[in-house]
Amino acid sequence: MEEQRSTWREGSNNLIWLMSDNMHHQWLLLAACFWVIFMFMVASKFITLTFKDPDGYGAKQEPLILTAVTKVEEAHVPEEKHWTKEFQPTGKAFTGNLLHHPLVHMERLELLRNVCRDTALRNLSHTAVSKFVLDRIFVCDKHKILFCQTPKVGNTQWKKVLIVLNGAYSSIDEIPESIVHDHEKNGLPRLSSFSDSEIKKRLNLYFKFFIVRDPFERLISAFKDKFVHNPRFEPWYRHEIAPSIIRKYRRNRMETKGLQFEDFVRYLGDPNHRWLDVQFGDHIIHWVTYVELCAPCEITYSVIGHHETLEDDAPYILKAAGIDRLVSYPTIPPGITVYNKTKVERYFSGISKRDIRRLYARFEGDFKLFGYRVPDFLLN
């Protein structure tokens, strides 16, 4: 009997040991499974971050943009960015070498995409890629570049760069000023001159850029250039367009002066401004919105430069387009690109808050798409 009890105890101990050993192996197997799953998640996250598509919204994706984003993501760009609250293109928040870093330019494009997705701003941020837009885009086939013209932000100099790249002249200094805007002689074809299939191919594959500046300061520049100084070769601004605006928008009929900035603002802020725009034709390009000029929510641009930081942006654009060894952007006079708050305040000092708010309502898409903020003294 004692021998049987001993055998039974020995069997029980062996069973307990086997069960314990089996459970140990199960825990090891379970831990191994968890480790494999964890490593798979880490690998997936790495792949997602490395190949994250920066142009998920809108137009077809492009290898050029993906290459630039891959470099930025490898530099550990944070997924959640709070830069828009601090970024003020009208100031000097970014200077020197920092602006040469792709991160700044990728953040500009990210802001653009986010605003394009905002359904509340859709009417102010979206437009059809019409012939009007295609007429604004100049083509350099030799180097696969598209440049959308946004008047009053230094576009003459960029045209000179493209004229040289297209081979019409060997250097910028050789280009006569009379040739730059003569599209019959400057060797700069417009995108609208191509067939639909050729247009689509270039929009999908070429390096594309344009330049913006503070929207209100741009309007002041347009007003001064076209209605105050009024170049001799553009008499229609003073003799045709100005009288039409005065007849419709001047409040003091006893006033006999030429077009005043107040008249100009009232015209631009009128929700029914388009009936005059149609009469003025393409001359409105000097004050029409960036949205209407370049369709930034419909066309996937590679870089968006800012006039306020052009000293840094111009070299970056040339390098990003792969042409920095072929041509240089003309020297920028000191202070020419700096946002002039005093000038803006002086021009708007006699404008009613109601008219300023109506003007902002029209250009709100431009302000938000490109990170500009209306100075407090204009709206408060």
Automatic annotation (TrEMBL):
Annotated GO MF terms: sulfotransferase activity
Location of the protein in the cell: Golgi apparatus membrane
InterPro entries: Carb_sulfotrans_8-10, P-loop_NTPase, Sulfotransferase
Principal cellular location given in the protein's record: Golgi
Keyword flag Heme: no
GO biological process, one term: carbohydrate biosynthetic process
Keyword Glycoprotein included in the entry's annotation: yes
Protein's membrane topology: Single-pass type II membrane protein
GO cellular component terms, semicolon-separated: Golgi membrane
Keywords of the record: Carbohydrate metabolism, Glycoprotein, Golgi apparatus, Membrane, Signal-anchor, Transferase, Transmembrane, Transmembrane helix
Enzyme Commission number: 2.8.2.-
Transmembrane segments: 27-51
Highest taxon above the source species: Eukaryota
Family: Belongs to the sulfotransferase 2 family.
Protein name: Carbohydrate sulfotransferase
Lineage start: Eukaryota, Metazoa, Chordata, Craniata, Vertebrata
